[in-house]
């Protein structure tokens, strides 16, 4: 029987660098996880491709998928819906492939209820002032929204205890290596490697 893959969930406050770290991880050659492409009702940004960055859906389509129970989790975030399609994730896990989700905090907590065996990683900023700087330099928010995001970010940081790991995103490369090490360690904790040695002993 194939052992199920790991469900790896990367979450954390807006602006901490989740998208940046996720893209850096998937640009590496030695990464062996599947990325679950989310569905969203937000409009594509310049350069974004349907089916690569997101599956872009209308609100009606998204709501009908909610009714059909097609999401592991979904959340409304800054006026748009975002959700993780259940079929792709289930298919990968049952084939023994590891799946990586990069989602905001409300969604991550829903996934934890459904998949408590998942590996939940909270990406944390080196400091609140650095977080504010990142949100500001990204330039997608007005001053009012930045303060709003900071208030939400503080509430989200308080939820880090619900996670298995906290990874500081001081430097992107360091954050990526920490996450990759966590996945390796989680595999060692589970049975896959033990089974390999047990089989070796049986042959002896
Ligand atoms: N709950 C949930 N959040 C998601 C999903 N996909 C992306 N997100 C989060 O939605 C937030 C907004 O993403 P996006 O519109 O791409 O803008 P960003 O703030 O530049 O990353 C980010 O925190 C993402 O991590 C999903 O499927 N479910
Ligand atoms: N380790 C880092 N050091 C400095 N800036 C970073 C780092 N990680 C991300 N950033 C910057 O912070 C901003 C927010 O990153 P982003 O990936 O959009 O965050 P999130 O997806 O969590 O909302 C971007 O301008 C990004 O370039």
From TrEMBL:
A molecular function (GO) held by this record is: ATP binding
Query: InterPro entries attached here?
Result: GK/Ca_channel_bsu, Guanylate_kin-like_dom, Guanylate_kinase, Guanylate_kinase_CS, P-loop_NTPase
Q: What are the protein's UniProt keywords?
A: ATP-binding, Cytoplasm, Kinase, Nucleotide-binding, Transferase
* CDD domains assigned: GMPK (cd00071)
Residues in Guanylate kinase-like domain copies? 5-184
Which reactions fall under this protein's catalytic activity? GMP + ATP = GDP + ADP
Q: What is its EC number?
A: 2.7.4.8
Where, per UniProt, does this protein localize?
Cytoplasm
Pfam families, sorted: Guanylate_kin
Q: Where does ATP bind?
A: 12-19
Main location as per UniProt: cytoplasm
One annotated Gene Ontology cellular component of this protein:
cytosol
Coiled-coil region: none
EC class of this enzyme?
A: transferase
NCBIfam families according to UniProt: guanyl_kin
Q: PANTHER family given for it?
A: GUANYLATE KINASE, GUANYLATE KINASE-RELATED
Which family does the UniProt entry place this protein in?
Answer: Belongs to the guanylate kinase family.
Q: Which HAMAP family match?
A: Guanylate_kinase
What's the stated role of this polypeptide? Essential for recycling GMP and indirectly, cGMP.
Q: What is this protein called?
A: Guanylate kinase
Write down the species.
Answer: Sutcliffiella cohnii
């Amino acid at each position: 029987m194939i052992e199920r893959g790991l469900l790896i969930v990367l979450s954390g406050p807006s602006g901490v660098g989740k998208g940046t770290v996720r893209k850096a991880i998937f640009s590496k050659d030695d990464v062996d996880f599947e990325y679950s492409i989310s569905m969203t009702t937000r409009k594509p940004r310049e350069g974004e491709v349907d089916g690569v960055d997101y599956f872009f859906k209308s609100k009606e389509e998204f709501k009908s998928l909610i009714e059909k129970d097609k999401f592991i989790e979904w959340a409304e975030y800054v006026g748009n819906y975002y959700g993780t399609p259940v079929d792709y994730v289930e298919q990968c896990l049952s084939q023994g492939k590891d799946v990586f989700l990069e989602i905001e905090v409300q969604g991550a907590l829903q996934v934890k209820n459904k998949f408590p065996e998942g590996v939940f990683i909270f990406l944390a900023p080196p400091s609140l002032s650095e977080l504010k700087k990142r949100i500001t330099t990204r330039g997608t928010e007005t001053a009012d929204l930045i303060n709003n995001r900071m208030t939400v970010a503080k509430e989200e940081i308080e939820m880090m205890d619900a996670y298995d790991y906290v990874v500081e995103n001081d430097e992107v490369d360091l954050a990526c290596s920490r996450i990759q090490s966590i996945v390796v360690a989680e595999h060692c904790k589970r049975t896959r490697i033990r089974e390999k040695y047990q089989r070796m002993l049986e042959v002896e």
